[in-house]
Amino acid sequence: MAGRDLALMRLVFAAAACLVLVSPSASARVNGAPSLCRRLAVRLGRSPGSAVRDAQALDQWLRPWVRFAHTHPVTADALSRQVMRLWRTEAGSARAAHVQRLRGSGLMRISGAGAELYEPCSQAMYLRRSRGGASRVLAVPILNPAPCRRFGQRRALATVLGQPAYVESDRLDFTNSDALLRIVPWLGRDWGRVCPLTIRFSYQATLTHRPYCHADRAVCAAAGGVAPALGRRYRLYVISSVTAVTARRAAPDIQFGNSLTGRQWRLIGRGQRLAAARALAPANGAPPWLPDQLSLRAVEFFPLQLNGRSYLGAVGPGPHASTLLFGVFRVPRARSRRLHPLAVFRMRWQPVSVQSVQVSDRRAAAPLE
Question: Residue 78's domain spans which residues?
């Protein structure tokens, strides 16, 4: 399947790294003080599965230990006018849209995001306001921030275990909630060293939505029954493929059943060509995002048996973060010009427990589950 390695690398950002698994007894010292990351890792590793399952987002799960400062629009009060003067001097721009104030620390983060910009991608300035009212411009906490993306990313002031800090959170994989935190503690007069933390969860594939079903309800019911298992198998395939690419080995072929015959490989090839051309037959009620999602090179097609009949299946990234797409199509003939959707499902990787919390300085491939 041409281009599969590149597509998988886009799905999961992986690199070889030296990782240290944190246990509750672990301890370390950085700059003469207990490592903030290691202390936080111990707390996160003890988080019960119920807290993981109940959290709707990473920020909500982190809230007992990491509290992010709220972002507000710049207003016309005296402090904001002072901030704006510093912004124009330091940033060389008259546009400052948002401000974060971390209570009790005097720390502020000002960003120049406009309506057309995603806030973490914008230029930012950091200040500390003294008790006398003067504001001092601070150095940027991280000189080499993560590349800006349009999903799952946050850059903010926060308190970490009660200590003022700058936190940069980033998703490791578009299909799930695994995250990399880069924490820079505030030491009273300046920023401390960057402290990275990799958080991985164990997941359960849950069927969240059936956006389309053809007239044949029996096909939809049968497809819904196998969808979670196919989603789990696809995730393991992605992880093993990325691990192989990282180790410079050949990526494995996807397997959703027995070894494929030459005829089945030709069927898969027809599905890939039609999907790449966005050639879908009109289907009343089919989700509008289906052609675009099917055209992604990370989508995998495979022969599928339901109720004793043959179909063409497809599984790949869904339209939203932490979701997967699963589709069932009529078997396209050799001269078919369109794919005919029969059922389309959306699945979500629901975190159910903490798998590992690791202190690391680089992204790393997720371990096999």
Answer: 66-138
